[in-house]
Amino acid sequence: MNFFDLVNISERYMELVNPSTPEKVLTIGRVLGLKEGSRVIEFGCGYGEVLALWAKQFGVCGTGVDIREHACNRAKKKMSKLGLTNRIEIICANASEHSFEKQVFDIAACVGASFIWGGYRPTIRAMKEVIHPKGKLVIGEPYWLQQQIPPEYAETQQVHTEHELWQIAREEDFDFEYVVRASHDDWDRYEADNWYGLIRWLEENPEHPERQEVIDHLHKAQDEYLRYGREYMGWAIYVLNPAKY
Ligand SMILES: C[S@@+](CC[C@H](N)C(=O)[O-])C[C@H]1O[C@@H](n2cnc3c(N)ncnc32)[C@H](O)[C@@H]1O
After folding, report:
1. Which CATH number fits domain 22-182+233-240: 3.40.1170.20, 3.30.450.20, 3.40.50.10380, 3.40.50.150?
2. pTM of the shown model
3. Is 94 in the pocket of ligand 1 (CB under 6 A)?
4. Is 111 in the pocket of ligand 1 (CB under 6 A)?
5. Which of 6, 14, 17 best tests ligand 1's pocket when mutated (most atoms within 8 Å of CB)?
6. For residue 65, which atom of ligand 1 is closest to its CA?
7. CA 62, CA 53: separation in Å to the nearest integer?
8. For residue range 168-200, what is the model confidence (pLDDT) as tens digits?
9. Which of 50, 103, 162, 235 gives 143 a disulfide partner, CB atoms 3.0 to 4.6 angstroms apart?
10. What is the rounded distance in angstroms from the CA atom of residue 215 to the CA atom of residue 237?
């Protein structure tokens, strides 16, 4: 079973695929001043929940991009069910290879998917290409909660401290305009929803030949979260605007 198949299973009861909430995503939308016709692109859009929330509440239009066909199909179905297909287009592609129109979007978002370009700094660089000069970036990103991280965990993660995230943004000519942080409850909901999806699948597929891989994936996720993630990993959505000062 490949990694994307495991993700499809673990996320099957989730709409927002991050340690956040619809209310927090809407708060970001208000901070951005989203309005009817604001043009937004989201890289790594998953099931299109961020775009759907902003389109329903603020009337934005735009594009969601995801590499997984299964995610794109779910996102397209959602847009159709919500009557948003005339506003939100879903592109199934590797966002790091696809070419996008330059300097046309009001907002470029990447909520929990900076691995697309191999990290936070290259994500800022890639996203700034597609926004117009006064456009803003929205980045959902993990950060270390503490200065001392067990090395065996730190070396498996490409994560900065929050101060480093701010410094890198400044070096790339952006200011932090806002932050909405994940709470412990948000993390628990996100992690536990993943477990729930895997456990329901195991119940439904007692004879599946790749069952052991799903069990291993579940136990690895639980071990990592309960041993390290819960204590050391934070997550937040940041609004970055072009630096003025
Ligand atoms: C953690 S999920 C976030 C989904 C969504 N932003 C949300 O908050 O609900 C990350 C998404 O990035 C997608 N992804 C991974 N690599 C990608 C790539 N190279 N290009 C586009 N999407 C990618 C995954 O399929 C996954 O749906």
Report:
1. 3.40.50.150
2. 0.97
3. yes
4. yes
5. 17
6. 21
7. 12
8. 999 999 999 999 999 999 999 999 999 999 999
9. 162
10. 31
